[in-house]
Design goal:
Blueprint lengths: L19 H12 L3 E5 H7 L22 E6 L2 H7 L13 E5 L9 H16 L3 E4 L8 H11 L5 E3 L3 H9 L5 E6 L28 E9 L4 E8 L7 H7 L1
Parallel strand pairs: 1-2, 1-5, 2-3, 3-4
Antiparallel strand pairs: 6-8, 7-8
Helix pairs in contact: 3-4
The structure holds NADP nicotinamide-adenine-dinucleotide phosphate.
NADP nicotinamide-adenine-dinucleotide phosphate binds next to strand 1, helix 2, strand 2, helix 3 and helix 6.
């Protein structure tokens, strides 16, 4: 994000917030991960590849597999498919893709929506894309359901590279434990420019703010982005409203 906490401009342009050195660092992170997760908003805006693209000199000994699994979360496969029928993630020649669907918020869907959904899922499967049915894990929230689905397939180290909508849920549901925040020395402004945590965390009083433990700060590369590494507190001790919801 920029120093004023924006992850894109008001027009949605996000290329690039952080420096080349930070983006290179993210590729080394991806190389150590089993899966990389985004939401369909990021796919629609950015059409990312989410592959590891490192030079010969960057080979990482711990690299577990050639490419991490690429996951995009949506509440509607049909909407996702029609928004970007030629998305880079649909090309599975170099890396595998999973579309993780949680239809919980689509309970008012009509029969025609249902048919469109089945057709889109069929189109995705024909392209070699796996489908994760997150509804099967209810009452787990979708972000945690995805972590279960990934764990059952051997993915233990998962990197969330999503926008603020999904990031809010991942933090609120404690689907993530660690935050890596790249802060670029620039200002973007804009009342509607996206921010890393874009939705409601259930924090009404400042004393309810989600506490973090900062474990590392580091300057990255010549452009002086700052990397902040922080851990979320365990949910029992952390966000009271989440703890209430969970009981
Ligand atoms: N600078 C950065 O580090 C960075 C990183 C990523 C993105 N961005 C920027 O962020 C903006 C996009 O933000 P965003 O918030 O829309 O992205 P996002 O969080 O990646 O995607 C949001 C979408 O995820 C899906 N989703 C959310 N909650 C879900 C749930 N519980 N179950 C299933 N699917 C769920 C929904 O898709 P459906 O509507 O299909 O249901 C929702 O519209 C873009 O401008 C992009 O450039 C910046």
């Amino acid at each position: 994000m920029s120093l004023d906490g924006k992850i894109a401009t008001e027009t949605g342009d996000a290329r690039w917030v952080s420096s080349l050195a930070s983006r290179h660092y993210v590729h080394t992170l991806r190389a150590r991960c089993d899966a990389v997760v985004i939401g369909s908003g990021t796919l629609r805006h950015d059409d990312p590849e989410l592959t590891v693209r490192l030079g010969q000199d960057d080979l990482i000994p711990e690299l577990r597999s050639p490419q991490p699994l690429r996951v995009v979360m949506t509440t509607s496969a049909a909407r996702l498919w029609h928004a970007r029928p030629e998305a880079k993630l649909w090309n599975v020649a170099e890396a595998s893709t999973v579309v993780a669907i949680s239809s919980a918020s689509n309970s008012n869907s009509s029969d025609s929506d249902f048919d469109a959904e089945l057709t889109a899922i069929e189109q995705l499967r024909l392209r070699g894309i796996q489908i994760a049915d997150l509804d099967a894990y209810r009452p787990e929230p979708p972000t945690r359901a995805l972590m279960h689905w990934l764990y059952e397939r051997g993915c233990c180290n998962v990197l969330w590279e999503c926008g603020g909508t999904l990031a809010t849920q991942a933090v609120r549901d404690r689907a993530v434990q660690k935050l890596l925040v790249f802060i670029a020395p620039k200002l973007v402004g804009g009342r509607t420019s996206p921010t890393p945590i874009a939705a409601d965390l259930g924090v009404l009083q400042m004393r309810e703010a989600v506490p973090l433990h900062i474990t590392r700060t580091e300057k990255i590369g010549p452009d002086q982005d700052i990397l902040v590494e922080a851990y979320l507190e365990r949910e029992e001790a952390a966000c009271p409203s989440f703890a209430l919801n969970a009981t």
